[in-house]
Amino acid sequence: MSETAEKVKKIVVEHLGVDEAKVTEDASFIDDLGADSLDTVELVMAFEEAFGVEIPDDAAEKITTVKDAIAYIEGQKG
Amino acid sequence: MFPNDAAPRRVVVTGMGIACPLGLGVENVWKRLLAGESGISAIQSFDVKDLPAKIAGQVPIGSRAEGKLDLNEWIPVKDQKKMDRFIQLAVVAAVEAVEDSGWLPKAEEDQAATGVMIGSGIGGLTTIYEASQQIAAGKAKRVSPFFIPSALINLASGHISIRYGFKGPNHAVVTACATGVHALGDAARLIAFGDADVMVAGGAEAAVSEIGMAGFCASRALSTAFNGTPQQASRPWDEGRDGFVMGEGAGVVVLEEYEHAKKRGAKIYAEVIGYGMSGDAYHITAPSETGDGAYRSMRAALRSAGVAPAEVQYVNAHGTSTPLGDDLELGAVERLWGDDARGLAMSSTKSAIGHLLGAAGAVEGIFSILAIRDRVAPPTLNLEQPSRESPIDRVAKVAQERPITVALSNSFGFGGTNASIVFRAAP
To answer: Which chain A residues have a beta carbon less than 8 Å from that of B79?
Structure first.
């Protein structure tokens, strides 16, 4: 697992209060991890803070799974 | 407004919950209160060096089994950050009250007949302060999406309704330090009028923070002479009093239509028989010089209860330990009770827990109910030398067994808002 993936999963566990085992790469924040729309806004802000990236709203809307988040962040960091 | 053929319905108390500086759990807090213990201590959670008042009543940290607060036992971690502390405390007290009442409706119509009315004097003050700091630091985009719902006063009622599926009236009172009594009284009226069969009602406050303390220090309302001896600082009617001691906490009761409670075999603590309100129309923070607002509030409550002053054996005073307010309230009670003042017991339990602002009336309402249940008047701590004599027994320092069947509780707030509520022993 990449360093980014590990960090993303850790943030998801902390913010959504879910078991680490449930945070698979395919897990959807809303459908699988019990997040609501405000939770996802906060998650994206936490990613921005942790990785020092800007995630504009239109991009944030497309980040619905753990995998989406990892891919977006890795893409930004080049 | 009022259904044609309906008469007001009777309202009883079937559940109670408290989180306050004497701890968690109604029985635990009551036992400590009667024993003359104090919940006032030095503030440790933030730096008080620039504040003239350095003490407060803070909810003790520890396990539920010890009668203390560990939030993780009550609210999932992920939800805690969506709530200012006043909401967290409201939820804790509401969970205790609802569990105590045994009313956990699953049927749609029962849920729709159950409402929530939890108020707060100030609401999410600390949450607003923290967001302001972020904005001042140029981080407006980092303000949490939970900032607004965490700060809003009616979100205490919102969270409790969501937790239990209570789909009846969802309301919130905001009348400064009179909030708790207004919430209980207004909720009782909703039941009496038929808007709901059950109401979860109360008040919550969490202003023991830098911004809360600084604000009340600035309004010259807080005690500053007892920073070295915190437990002596709240001393209603005593000549050495010099202001109130800030406290945090929540009090919540389950109010229920009498027949509804009887039908399900609920334990009934007391009946809500009277409620009165008034406005001073005088000053934004000072009580009216004649005590007339307090007098009219109590008179209205007794009138609505249909009882004479002589029939009331106990008054839980607003009694905040401020130089002006305490004796004005005392004078108003003496005037209303007249010759019957001699038989009356009146104490201020703020002497033990401080002033819980918007939660005060709800917590003190619960103390009044317990005074009826156990036939005992809780003490006024630190009342060594009254600033003036009175025929009313102010229950100095030690609880007194008394034949209490009717009790009145007062709460008065900034803005000149007054409320009084009257309870009677369970029917």
So the answer is: 17
